[in-house]
Structures are given as C-alpha cells and as structure tokens.
What does this fold into?
Amino acid sequence: MAATTGASIQTFLDHPFFNRTFILPPNPLTGRTTPFKASYCDYGYHNPSDPSRERVLLHFGPLMATRLLHVAKHFVAARHHIRIIDIDRPGFGGTDAIPTAERMAIWREVVPALLTSLSIAHLSAITAHSGGTVYAVDFLLSHPSFLLPTTSTTPTLLALGAPWILPSRSSATAAWLTQQLPSPVLRQADAARILVERYVDPVVGVSTGFSGAIGRSMRVISGSLGSVAAAPAPSTDEEMAPLDAEGGEWSAARQFELRVISGLGEKISKEGAKGLGEEAVVLMYKEGAGGWGDWGDYDVAVPRVVEGLRAAGRRLEVRVFWAEKDMMVGDAGTKGPRWFAGCWRGGWDEVLEYGETAVEGADHDTIWDLHRRSAREVYGRVGWVGEEGEEGGS
It folds into this structure.
C-alpha cells in the first residue's frame, strides 16, 4: 500500500486490510444457535511465505472499540515487521450487537476463533487502551496458550495505555460523574453525550469537551468527531524533538496519523456505533460482576492470570503507560494508578514482570499517539527495523 495523501484518506480507510469480516459459527454448547459476525483489521507486516517472521500484536481498543483508531500506524508497523489485529467489539462497525451480559462471553469465543482462523498460534504482544484493558485481562485469563512459549527469546508483552480503573478505585472526577448516570441514560449514547456536555464538562472544567474515550466516542455518534478526536499537532519543536532525533519516520508518521484521525468520523458514522451505550454500561460496572466475568476487578484477576501462566508454562512482561494528566483514571502516580500497579506486584517474578512509565505530555486520549513514547517503545520492543536477516524482538 503506497503512502496516502490527505485527499485520499477515505480510500485509505476503505482498504481491505482494515475491512475484514469473520463469521463465528453457532455454538450449541453455549446455546448460541445463530452465527456471529465480527469486523476486524489485519494490517502492518505480512509474510505469507514465512509467517514465523511476523510479530503479531493483538489490540483491544478503548470505549469506542472501533477497529479503525490505529490504522494510521500501518506503515510504521510494517516497517517494524509487526502485524496488528484489531477487532470491532459488539455493536461497532460490522460486528453484531449483543446484550450487555453476553459481551464478555462472546468475546471469549470470537478472539481465539479468529486468531486460529488466521493461523496465529502465538502473540508477540497484546496491547490495550483504557477500557480495552478489561477485555485484554479476560483474554489472558481464558486463553494463556496464545502467549509465546518459554522457548522464545522474550515473553509476550502486555502493554497497557491508560488502563481503565473503576472510579471507586481512582476517585477520578470525570469517570465518577459519568458513573452516576443511570444505565438507561448510558445506553442512549446521544442523550448521555448531551448530559455530559451540559452538566459534567462545566464541573470538571474541560474546555474542549469531556475527556477520555467517553467524550470522543459520544461525539462520533453525533457526527462531530472531527473537531474533537483530531488531536492538535505538536505545538513546539521540543515536543517533536524525540521523534526527529530518531530520523524523520516518526514525525512524518504522526502527521499522517493526524490526517487519518480527522477523517475517521465519516466512516465510523456510516458504519454505526450502536454498541456504545452497552459498552459504557459494562465499563462503568453498572450491571455488577457479570459485566466483567466472574473476576470482578484486577486484584482478583491478576492472581488468576498468574495461576494460568504457571499452568500453561508461559511468562508475561507487563508494561503500563500512564498519562501525565488523566481525568478518567487519575494522573500518573495518583491513587488509581498506584492501586493498579499494586495488583500486578505480587512477587511473581518467575512468570510475570511488571514495569510502568509516566508519559510526559500525554492525556487519556493520546497515550498511544505516535508523538508519545508509548508506541515507539512497544514497536521497538516487539519488532525490528532492517533487512530480513537483521532480526530482533521476540
């Protein structure tokens, strides 16, 4: 795929890499009598003649849960020999809608079935943004066999950007106020957007609208994503310096990313995002423990993940990137992030290694943007740049 100019962003977004469909057959064992359709992306580096050279990265997106949020990273991923899989969650894009209580259960079927259909046996990395962390952790609990075996030079990387934390753990103002909205209101995405803009934004003092994936997602539904989701270009030479110091690749990639983001609203609006309300209900824990499976929260889930790693003979490297300023889960180093880190630091070094980084200048929305260090560090850790023989990564 050739590099794309601003005039052909929609053509870029319509590329088959970003518009694939998977059909999950009926499952009589669970009582599901009809097929389930899921739309997904499969982009970056592909090597059909030698798939072992692909470094496969499975991404779990934030509340908006659209597969398209990171497709601008296609060229950078391809150069680093990284293949990215990103799936629309229920009710987004071409993925079938499903009731709240069934979202996590169907995802336990869809993700491994899709990976198997693509002949992907192991993942070099699993990444997540905000609410996608809930689904990523549940995947680890259910399917540790997809992690790299211990014979690999490095373990699978779990990289989390601004991981979602319940407001009761973080005391983050914006998330707490949103959690107070009744479930019927959250299920009506446009009504929730109006309430948030009218009553929550003035309280938390956000001049450009509700922070985080919630604000971005609700504005997509109303057709106004362009002015909100298109993060401003870096305003100072200093902010771009880390990219330019490595060469022009990252700087150019960031500018392309901005153009793609500005064009997402039209395509996402056409495809639909009727699952937004149900997704918000799940992430805000409005329906009780059923919404997050039987584990309820990370302090229960992580010890179970460790048990699964030991039983499967796997290891996991966990790297968390916190935003310097984050009204959804708390700023780096505050109550919520400290609690989250404590869940992973349990003396399990033989199977689980934990590390975290505060990303200067980042907020909840921009933690994975290409002008932040997060994506660069993950791509450098997982993939490699150079000739086919100059291999690195896992």
Residues 190-247, 389-394 have pLDDT under 50 and may be disordered. The chain has 16 helices and nine strands.
